[in-house]
Design goal:
The protein has 397 residues and is α/β, with parallel strands linked by helices. The protein has 15 helices and 17 strands. It folds into two domains: 113 residues, 2-Layer Sandwich (Enolase-like, domain 1); 269 residues, Alpha-Beta Barrel (TIM Barrel), CATH 3.20.20.
Length: 397
């Protein structure tokens, strides 16, 4: 069996997402995905990876990962290059599972659990506006989630104070162009802003008590003093975790944050490969390890990062606020890694556009996601995706 064709697929409706399909001489098709800067990632796939992979055995996944890593490491791997490697790695594991007639998790050692607990990231898509809900009706939102069996939610009530006060938080779902001031690092938080940021958390606790866990996302938008200020203010509310308050480099500052607060620190979707996570683990800079599989190196690297974290008695909680393939890839890690704690999902997405892209869709029930049972990844691009009028398909063969 040999790799005969590599396709990248983009949809104008979802301009940040890139899907990858690897075709083989045996007729198998592996599916991968990544997110952000899709033009640059497609360039890496077709200009750098395709000449290496075409004509090769798709089952030699570890060799392909290392070949591509060392080629791109020559000029800097941690960007579009690693996103490309991540998408390709997932597609190769999909092929391996199909060739073996087994779900990927069986090739990773088999399942250690039957399903994985999920939390809802309160984002917006279509008719589901959980973002506005957590800012304005947080208690009602918590009640609604509990009614569906979801007992953990993630919100980001402090982002609005990190940027210029003249800017509301933008809807970035369908745009690559975000106002520059949105990414300004918060240098100061007034007592009134701190109080307003705590309001959704207080409303949730007042409405449902401790029946729901609250994860706080900060999108790496704060300096260290402000991050400490927010974390300490959250301590009485017993939050689930405090995620990415700082940029993940330098790691020593994350380690200081761990020492300055009793809130569990979660890091980081922004770290690329085991080498970056090694620094976090060695410096005791987080309590929860959050790799993003479609950015940090795919399933191959995710499994290694999970094993490293387990050696430090730390759980993993894979990141996802992107596309459906990422969730499926993460599910195979969650099935096979003993230290998988919880899996992120966005009900606005899996009840919205996911069903238009892949089949089957996620199965979320009673606050848990079921693991796929079909060979390989367990999902496929719907046939009509490539035929869509807004599809752009680029091929190397």
């Amino acid at each position: 069996m040999r790799i005969t064709r590599i396709e990248t697929i983009r949809l104008a409706e979802h301009p940040r997402t890139l899907w990858v399909q690897i075709h083989t001489s045996d007729g198998l098709v592996g599916l991968g995905e990544t997110y952000y800067v899709p033009s640059a990632v497609a360039g890496v796939i077709h200009d750098v990876a395709a000449p290496v992979l075409l004509g090769e055995d798709p089952l030699e996944i570890e060799r392909h990962w290392h070949d591509l890593f060392h080629i791109t490491n020559y000029y800097g791997y941690a960007g579009a290059e690693m996103r490309a490697i991540s998408a390709l790695d997932i597609a190769l594991w999909d092929i391996a599972g199909q060739a073996a007639g087994q779900p990927i998790y069986n090739l990773l050692g088999g399942r250690v659990r039957d399903r994985i607990k999920t939390y809802n990231t309160c984002a917006t898509y279509g008719a589901i506006d959980d973002y506005t809900a957590f800012l304005e009706r947080a208690g009602e939102l918590a009640e609604d989630l509990l009614g569906e069996g979801i007992s953990t939610m993630k919100i980001w009530p402090f982002d609005q104070f990190a940027s210029s006060p003249r800017l509301a938080a933008p809807d970035t779902r369908n745009s690559l162009h975000v106002p520059r001031d949105y990414y300004t690092v918060g240098q100061h938080l007034t007592p009134d802003q701190l109080r307003r940021g705590l309001e959704p958390v207080k409303k949730i606790r007042d409405a449902v008590g401790d029946r729901i866990e609250i994860a706080i996302e900060l999108h790496s938008r704060w300096n260290l003093p402000s991050a400490i200020q927010i974390a300490r203010a959250l301590e009485p509310y017993d939050v689930f975790w405090f995620e990415d308050a700082l940029t993940p480099d330098p790691v020593d500052d994350l380690a200081r944050l761990v020492q300055e607060t009793r809130v569990p620190i979660c890091a980081s979707e922004r770290l690329f490969t085991r080498y970056a996570f090694r620094q976090v683990l060695e410096r005791r800079a987080a309590h929860i390890i959050m790799p993003d599989i479609i950015w940090t190196g795919g399933i191959s690297e995710g499994k290694k990062i999970a094993a490293m974290a387990e050696a430090y008695h730390l759980p993993i909680a894979p990141h996802d606020c992107t596309g459906p393939v990422n969730v499926f890839a993460c599910l195979h890690l969650c099935a096979s890694c003993p230290n998988a704690m919880i899996m992120e999902s966005v009900r606005a997405f899996y009840r919205g556009y996911y069903a238009e892209i892949v089949e089957p869709n996620l199965e979320v029930r009673d606050g848990h996601i079921s693991f796929p049972t079909a060979p390989g990844l367990g999902t496929r691009l719907r046939p009509e995706v490539l035929a869509r009028s807004d599809a752009r398909v680029q091929t190397s063969e």
